[in-house]
Amino acid sequence: MSVSLILIPLAIAAAAAHAGLSKGKDATVCQVQTRMRDAGLLAAALRESRAAVASEDGVLVADWAGVRARFARDERQIWTAHFTGDVDEARAVDIVRAVDAAYGRQVQQAVLARLTERAPAAGLRLESRSVTPDRAVRLVFAVERAS
Q1: Dihedral sign from CA coordinates of 109, 111, 117, 119
Q2: What's the CA gap between 10 and 32, in Å, rounded?
Q3: What DSSP letter does each residue of 112-147 carry, written as one string?
Q4: Which residues of the chain have pLDDT under 70?
Q5: Contact 64, 50 (CB under 8 A)
Q6: What whole-number distance in Å separates Cα of residue 46 and Cα of residue 79?
Q7: pLDDT score of 29
Q8: Axis-axis angle for helices 39-48, 89-118 (nearest 10)
Q9: How far apart are CA 128 and CA 142, in angstroms?
Q10: From CA 93, how far away is CA 10, in angstroms rounded?
Q11: 8 A C-beta contact, residue 25 and residue 34
Q12: 127 close to 142: Cβ distance less than 8 angstroms
């Protein structure tokens, strides 16, 4: 089976993204909202979901047991994920939602790394870091010097 998902950025109308992608005879096409933009973070999120990931000419290819997905961007930089193998529309959507959640964790890690890296230059010292059960991270900085 073949399933294609248009991964709609949260800020873009679905109708605009759907223009130009028509339903194929053998494929199911649907749209899923996502926050995914950065290819490096998407590749990391795919690896977090236990996919073997390769990059081929700007296209990310992810392989799970029995399922392959090709993530590519169109001219508007909107991702499309085309799934083949042992997959139906519901499973493809579930995979994308899991990858989107992993992508959110990757973004969080990148932001935390930037904050802690830039803190000393801003006159701040990291005093504590805590993680809540829902994976929210709380950082407490001390001011070392006035800027």
Answers
A1: negative
A2: 9
A3: HHHHHHHTGGGTEEEEEEEE-TT--EEEEEEE-S--
A4: 10-29, 145-147
A5: yes
A6: 14
A7: 67
A8: 120
A9: 9
A10: 16
A11: no
A12: yes
CA–CA gap between residue 133 and residue 107 (Å, rounded): 18
Written as six digits, the tokens of 31 are 């749209």
The pLDDT value given to residue 35: 78
pLDDT at site 95: 93
Report phi then psi at 67, rounded to 5: -135, 135
Q: Are 30 and 22 in contact (CB under 8 A)?
A: no
- Residue 119 in tokens: 């803190």
Tokens 């029995």 belong to which residue? 66
Other CB atoms within a 10 A radius of the CB of residue 29 amount to: 17
What ranges make up the beta strands (E) of 1-147? 2-9, 27-34, 52-56, 59-64, 67-73, 79-85, 124-131, 137-143
Contact 84, 27 (CB under 8 A): no
Extract the tokens encoding 17. Answer: 């993204």
- Cα 2 to Cα 89: distance, rounded to the nearest angstrom: 9
